[in-house]
Amino acid sequence: MAFNILVVDDEADIRELVSGILCDNGYETNVASGYVEAVSIVKAQRPNLVIIDVWLGDGDKDGLRLLEMIKRDHEYIPVIMMSGHGTIETAVAAIKRGAYDFIEKPFDSRRLIMSVEKAIETSKLQAENAELKIKAKVSDSIPGKSQNVVQIRQLINRIAPLNGRCVIISPLGSDREVVARNIHNNSSRAKGPFGVFNCRATHVGQLEANLFGTELNNSDTSATMKPGLLEKINGGTLFIDELVTAPHKFQLKLLKLLKEESFARVGAAERMHIDVRIIASFPLNIQQLIDAGEVSDELYCRLNANTIKILPLKSRR
Question: Which CATH number fits the domain 139-315, given the four candidates 3.40.1080.10, 3.40.50.300, 1.20.1290.10, 3.40.50.1000?
Fold first, then answer.
């Protein structure tokens, strides 16, 4: 997969020069001439890296303002700053605001590519480290030799490569997160992120914001944006635990996500495409809850492309 880099500079010849160097080295690029255009591209496309000129012409050191926005709302996107008349103070200010590197113009193309390679590699290592910290908290093994456990292992081996949605029906206290993680680890998404969203453990008023993210004002490019879990694990697997505790409004939003494979942050109108495999857990009495109207029948049917049932511990001694 080619890495996508956004080049932001108010001088067209510099934009094209940097973009050409990057393309010659196997990267895909987008270009922007100023703050507003760059913000729009970052929001819509989430580039792997952004290269910004300190002086964009939109205002005093507008590139630093763009840097602050990116590190505030998209902390995992590395940023390299450039300047044709940089000072030590400007470089220090950029690094303090979260820039990975500061390059002076005119720059050597080898110096640029070396900085880009290191920035992307550092970003990948940070993401992998965060994922490893999550994985370290949960064992990937499914203990037991009962018939049910053997069946579960067989189902995981069959379901994991299919990339379809899945429901895990089980009592409280069972190993359903371990089962979901095993499905992820044995799928084509194994190198991608794995996220857990526990509806019972999340305050009801924060469910949508935590999963979908927030955007205070979609028309104001300086508005505060906070990505939700969905954006952070794009390309990976999402395990939704205790979905039955979520209110009907949240279930309908999740249903729309499944139908359209896109979502909008809370407070925003623009919808974003998402590529996430969803696994959800339900209790053993799920049919009773559907009949009672506590769980959306359509939502359950769309999630239930594959089913794994975990029996209570007392029945698998």
Answer: 3.40.50.300
